[in-house]
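Q: I have 210 residues here and want to know how they pack in 3D. Can you give me a structure?
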Amino acid sequence: MSFKSASLPTLTVIKLGAAHEFFSEKILPQLHNYKTCTLSQFGTAEQLLELLKEDKLDIIITSKRFQTPGVEYLKLMDEEFVIVAPIDYQILESDNLKLMEQWLSAQSWISYGLELPIIRRIWREHFKKRPLIRPIHIIPNLHMILKAVENGAGLSVLPTYLLEKSLNDGRSKVVFEPLKVKNELYIAYPLKNKHLPQINEVMSLIRENK
């Protein structure tokens, strides 16, 4: 697939797949540096992998490394997730894990999904148990979750790359900073395209601006 115009040469189109939040924060600000055209699609790790296997995408950014023949993964970065609260939220002052877990369990939570993705990770990693909480709002969009937190709707868990402006502007704050978890992100692409210059150029730009 290529784009043509009367005055411009034909440009290759690179088909990119990512979570829309990562795309918005990390790829979109750098699109003006791309020397190829792009066609972007958003979805879950599972959805994007299927599109990659069907040759409907050339490169995906994914948090899951599947054992898939013909697909290569390169480590991109570590996402760091923290607990976030509205700026004026009254926080328990304690470094006792049991007291922190009890306090957190009693708060209003906003989650990306019913299965408490990432929230569950924090509980298992730091409290060695499953969270016994029922979120008051399910919002499958990290930008919207942050806005809901800023507006006082409750607590949530968000990646730090999304928070810089909100924290600097005094609209939210990190709660119990040591209770963080990391998530590995990968660039995945078909092995057969490993030596294509356009693919390598786009991957280099993504890695430079992570």
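Q: Anything worth noting?
A: The helical segments are 20-27, 45-53, 97-105, 119-127, 142-150, 164-168, 197-208. Confidence is low (pLDDT under 50) at residues 1-10.
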